[in-house]
Design brief:
The complex is a heterodimer of chains A (532) and B (148).
Chain A: E1 5-10, H1 14-23, E2 30-33, H2 63-66, E3 75-78, H3 110-114, H4 124-138, H5 162-175, E4 180-181, H6 219-225, E5 229-231, E6 235-241, E7 247-253, E8 259-269, H7 272-282, E9 308-314, E10 329-331, E11 347-352, H8 357-367, H9 376-383, E12 387-394, E13 403-411, E14 417-422, H10 427-446, E15 450-455, E16 492-494, H11 509-525
Parallel strand pairs in A: 1-2, 1-8, 2-5, 3-14, 8-16
Antiparallel strand pairs in A: 4-10, 6-7, 7-8, 9-12, 9-15, 10-11, 11-12, 13-14
Helix pairs in contact in A: 1-6, 1-11, 4-11
Chain B: H1 9-22, H2 37-45, H3 51-65, H4 74-87, H5 90-103, H6 107-112, H7 136-139
Helix pairs in contact in B: 2-5, 3-4, 3-5
Classes of the chains: A alpha/beta (532), B mainly alpha (148).
């Protein structure tokens, strides 16, 4: 048996890295167990001529398609949206678009403002300093002065507007609708040891330049220098408890597949909105027969994805294609509730610049735009390098039947039961998506686009895994308290997207990390009576 | 079949014939067809995890053709190929993707599109900064986020 560590963090992704870095200043013995390994940027797709093809293979966003040993399979057959993630040091920050908006103040008061779902036990102002700290650590590029959000000051200038952004900007101005350069975690200048962006373009499946922030190159080097220990290729099977009902440690499989036990005084879960409920539900004991921290019955429930309604078309002018970061502009024109609509809450638009030639060919062929035989070449030249895309990122309200459970048959390579997803798109969200599609078509029409295509929802679009162990003051209506500690197990904390009470209508990574830093700060302030 | 050659000679001939139908040679754009030997060699060499689905699609193609697709005349090839496309499904999608992804990374084809035949890294690309005065009307809007 190993000596107990003070703090054991499970997962080295967006939130695990942030909480590790923040807690390092306590000088406690902190250990992080990560099921994946360190990535080698020299092997990222953008370094090879098969850079686009790997999207359908070893760099698919779906763990089920990717099938690396570091991944675990997920039964998402009963969901119109499939889970996408990445398992490595850096987690899904290795494999994301780096679009980095924050939740709005209204997102934390959904019940009070709109009479749906629940309010959060924290508010925007409470998280504001942690948003700013995270912006500095991750390295955010953007532009202050956006009238759609509370003031913030990104440490780097925004990404160039480019050809695609300029076309969108003119169309949005003619419509009188809001747009703004997106906050991103792509370095636009050399920043804290990271080289600036050189427009590789293929950013989402990892950045070979290191310009895109992933926590393996932001938080982790600093945390490790501060003494945090990180063990890779260690997959946790279950969290163990003692007779007092406190977490006593974890059982995990090491790199060689050997079962190990690691004792800990505090356990922090940072495994995302699918991995965290999976682990809690796999941690069954006589004292916790329905899974750990699950007296409310809410572990795994209220899964929220952010259904994406994607619309694209083709303009006569050349666009940026895949020769620039996919992140470009955002619009919050339809973000806040408007009572004249047939839905509450709202969505943001994320504008994209275009795609590469292989992606263009494959997707256009599937849509019937690209013929077989005669006419193929002329059609392709009309499409390639002329695509404009925008997506409505729709707020997903919590619904108890949308949930993560354990699959009775499917297991990972260590024999650990895999998660099963049961999910449907709610009526409010469906109406919101239709609104988003209609407004996106307005934008594309104003830009002069033709051959309009719709992907709604984006099937392999389950990037945002939220709500499955939500925070709250009431132990019967939440899994953890106002500062991330389990109501049931007083030395067990959760810091990932599972905490979200509602989803907002923006990419969540910024808010996930701000929450992780907030929970870490609460832990530091309460060290003398953390378990009271 | 082997790891080095995941298709039988008949399957390889049918793949080449179908690829050449999907993307024919073009004098107008000065590009080869997808049945070009170099492109075919790339397809076979990189089939990898797609091999089972591609073999399934080729079996489907042979069934529709009533024998080797490559032995059909041009008119019959077109009819069978379009029937395969209409049938769709994961196997046909995988086969089509393999054809397209190998074709659109061939040096000659990439050059014909006005692009450089190279991976994105390490050279990257130039991106125009754009006219930020376009943002002036948005800057002029008062804050409109909802106070909570």
């Amino acid at each position: 048996m190993s000596d107990p560590v003070d703090v054991l963090i499970i997962g080295a992704g967006a939130s695990g890295a942030a909480v590790a870095w923040s807690l390092a200043e306590t000088k406690m013995h902190i250990l992080c167990l990560e099921q994946g390994g360190w990535m080698n940027p020299a092997q990222y797709p953008s370094t090879g001529r098969d850079w686009e093809a790997r999207f359908w293979g070893d760099y698919s966003p779906s763990p089920n398609i990717r099938g690396r040993r570091e991944d675990y399979p997920i039964n998402d057959d009963n969901s119109p949206i499939k889970v996408v993630n990445f398992n490595a040091v850096g987690g899904s920050t290795i494999f994301y678009t780096a679009h980095f908006p924050r939740l709005h103040p209204s997102d934390f008061r959904v019940k009070s403002l709109d009479g749906v779902a629940d309010d959060w036990p924290v508010d925007y102002d409470t998280l504001a300093p942690f948003f700013a700290e995270n912006d500095r650590m991750m390295g955010v590029s953007g532009l202050a002065g956006d009238p759609s959000v509370p003031e913030r000051n990104p440490p780097m200038p925004p990404l160039p507007m480019g050809r695609s952004g300029a076309i969108f900007a003119k169309a949005m101005n003619r419509l009188g609708w809001h747009w703004w350069p997106s906050d991103t975690t792509v370095a636009t200048v050399d920043y804290e040891g990271r080289a600036k962006c050189i427009n590789l373009g293929h950013c989402t499946p990892a950045c070979a330049q290191g310009a895109k922030a992933s926590t393996d190159i932001t938080y982790w080097p600093v945390a490790q220098r501060a003494g945090v220990e990180l063990k890779t290729h260690c997959r946790v099977r279950e969290i163990t408890t003692n007779e007092e009902g406190m977490a006593s440690g974890v059982i995990y499989y090491d790199e060689d597949g050997n079962e190990q036990f690691q004792a800990a005084h505090v356990v922090v879960l940072a495994c995302n909105g699918v991995g965290t409920p999976r682990l809690l539900l796999n941690s069954v004991s006589g004292k916790f027969p329905n899974g750990l921290a699950n007296s409310s019955g809410l572990v795994g429930r209220n899964l929220m994805f952010h259904p994406y309604a994607q619309v694209y078309g083709y303009v006569a002018d050349e666009t940026d294609g895949n020769r620039a970061p996919p992140t470009c502009l955002w619009s919050k024109e339809f973000y806040e509730t408007d009572k004249s609509r047939d839905f509450v809450r709202g969505y943001s638009f994320q504008f994209g610049r275009g795609v590469g030639p292989v992606m263009e060919a494959v997707t256009s062929e599937q849509k019937g735009l690209l013929p077989w035989g005669a006419g193929h070449h002329a059609a392709f030249r009309r499409l390639n390098g002329h695509r404009l895309t925008l997506s409505a990122i729709c707020e997903d309200l919590p619904e108890a039947h949308n949930r993560v459970t354990l699959d009775p048959e499917l297991k990972d390579c260590h024999g650990i039961p895999s998660p099963r997803i049961d999910y449907t798109i709610g009526e409010n969200t469906a109406r919101m998506m239709e609104h988003g599609i209609a407004r996106a078509k307005d934008v594309l029409a104003e830009a002069g686009a033709a051959d309009i295509c719709v992907n709604s929802p984006i099937v392999y679009g389950g990037w945002h895994l939220l709500g499955t162990a939500r925070m709250g003051a009431d132990p019967q209506r939440s899994v953890v308290n106002e500062w991330g500690r389990s109501h049931d197990v007083k030395n067990l904390f959760i810091v990932d997207g599972s905490l979200f009470v509602t989803s907002g209508g923006v990419n969540p990574t910024s808010t996930i990390q701000a929450l992780a830093l907030y929970v870490a700060d609460q832990i530091k302030q309460r060290l003398a009576n953390l378990f009271d | 079949m082997s790891d080095d050659n995941p298709l039988t000679p008949t399957q390889a001939a049918d793949l080449s014939a179908l690829a050449g139908f999907i993307i024919p040679v073009s004098d107008e754009f000065d590009v080869p067809g997808a049945d070009d030997p170099r492109i075919q060699a790339d397809m076979v060499a990189t089939l990898g995890r797609d091999a089972p689905l591609v073999r399934e699609a080729l079996a489907q193609l042979a069934r529709l053709a009533g024998g080797p697709f490559a032995s059909l005349d041009a008119a019959r090839r077109e009819a069978v190929a379009m029937e395969l496309r209409a049938a769709a499904g994961p196997a046909v999608a995988a086969l089509t993707r393999v054809v397209l992804q190998c074709y659109y990374r061939d040096d000659r084809v990439v050059r014909s599109l006005g692009l450089e035949p190279r991976p994105p890294y390490p050279k990257g690309h130039e991106l125009p900064d754009g006219d930020w005065s376009l943002l002036d009307p948005v800057r002029a809007r008062p804050p409109f986020w909802r106070r909570a």
